[in-house]
Amino acid sequence: MPAIVLSQLNTFSPYSRYGLGEMSPTTFAHNLGMGGTYIALKPDSTMPIFINTGNPASYSLIKLTTLEVGGSFLNSNFTSGSNLIKKWTTNFSYGALGFPVMKNGGACFGIMPYTNVGYETQATSNEIGIGNVTYNYNGGGGLNKAFIGYGLMPFKLQVIKFKNKRLYIPDSLKRLSKFEYNSIFLVKQIMSDLSIGFNVNYIFGNIQNNTKVIYPNSQLYNNTNRVRSVSLGNFTANFGAQTAISIDSVKSKNGKKRVLNEKLKFTFGYFMALNNSLKANYNTFIYNYTSDNFGNEFIRDTVLFQTDKQGDITLPLEQGFGLGFKKGERLNIVADFAVTNWQDFKYLDAINEFKNNTRVSVGASFLPEKYAVGNLSYFRRIIYRMGASYQSGYIDIKKTLLADYSITAGIGLPVGIGRSSSMVNISTQYGQMGTSLNNLVKDNYWRINIGFTFCDRWFQKFKYD
Fold it and tell me: Are 326 and 302 a contacting pair, CB within 8 Å?
């Protein structure tokens, strides 16, 4: 039966010894409060402006210089059979700066964790003729991601140009039927709201994994220790696209158009993270040893000693689609569906036994009155968020996929008297990963994310001094 022991600071999960470790969220506190949705989430172009690093196409809506930083608190309860252990930690989550570029674009750069490794587990197996053999696994480290991205709306004025062209129609220009006009207008609207973007990511860091095999009688058998350290620094990229369809009027019963008090908007998104191959350097040291009653190790012989070796790490291809619905400035509902091809993942010389991971996330936010003024206006400008997420899992142990379920809730608190340019975003997530069946480990966790958003006009050139 496996036992759970203390691990390093950023994660405690025993499953972080597989692959690159435990994957970190790609989004910020406001996204995490909405179930981690991001593919079709289009941020507002007026204050407060949020950076959506999950889909770089959203950078095109950054109209003010925006700074976001955040951290998280994690509390995990690990259970395996009758064993229970509780651990908690705090860590830095992200830092990013976004700013507008020309009239139809925006850029962003920042840094955030990519993976975390931190585990120390033990398993015992009764071998015939030998006795109970103990296997100790421990590791630490992780990878970080520094990124820079750009988003652009290449056809931003298509709707305006189309309306102006049809405003005064000369006799020489063919008049469009109602169906033709509405069809062309729909296409122009999709093109006008289309944004595309990309991130260039620099993945760097190091990971160390140790495995010890300890025999019950060191006089007859030599124990074995395998130490591997991997370091890398290489580039990868991800792309995204977003568009929307807006409805500002509907037909009334008498056939006339009725202007809606709150415009309806349907958003659509696409995201792809490339399956780049990264060059990695690694050292491997395997040796046999004996130990005394005080735990001191005495090396008997070296089995393998490799230094400065090079290998390839092939990342999994990830693709996803998103849908959203927004009513005015108050209600926003979004949903993501994404698949990560972990079956194509390659980690140096390791045999890949991963499965493809499916992620489904839904989220909603509600803002009572964005531009509220007067008495109690502060409380009407608070943003409320909630969501849920499911991941089928890509780690397959004993023919059991380690799925991850979670529910989230969040709140956005305006900061500053009479200003709406800054916010404190707090989100909480309760989830469960894995299972305690088949001598596996189940992780019941609480995660609290706190993010700070500041946006204002920078680099503004005044016409008059």
Answer: no
400 conformational bin, left if phi > 0, alpha if psi -120 to 50, beta if neither: beta
Cβ–Cβ under 8 Å, residues 117 and 141: yes
**pLDDT confidence of residue 228:** 95
- Rounded mean pLDDT, 102-116: 95
d(CA 425, CA 449): 8
Q: Which of 410, 366, 354 is nearest to 387 (CA)?
A: 410
Residues ≥6 apart with Cβ < 8 Å to 220: none
pLDDT for 464 beyond 70: no
pLDDT for the residue numbered 170 = 63
357-366 and 400-401: which strand pairing?
unpaired
Give the DSSP H or E segment for 164: helix 158-167
Read off the pLDDT band of 38 (50, 70, 90): very high
Q: What are phi and psi of 175, to 5 degrees?
A: -80, 140
Rounded to two decimals, what is the model's pTM? 0.90
Strand partners, 380: none
> Is residue 218 classed exposed, middle or buried when 0-12, 13-18 and 19+ CB atoms within 10 A define those classes?
middle
Q: How far is the CA of 53 from the CAs of 96, 146, 164, 190, 349, in angstroms?
A: 9, 12, 35, 22, 32
Q: What residue spans define the domains of the chain?
A: 3-153+193-456
Per CATH, the number for 3-153+193-456 is 2.40.160.60
Is 452 in contact with 416 (CB distance < 8 Å)? no
209: nearest Cα among 403, 15, 342 = 15
Peptide bond into 170 cis (omega under 30): no
158-167 vs 178-192: helix crossing angle, rounded to 10:
150
Measured between alpha carbons, how far is 63 from 66 in angstroms, rounded to an integer? Answer: 9
What's the CA gap between 52 and 43, in Å, rounded?
A: 7
CB 65 within 8 A of CB 96: no
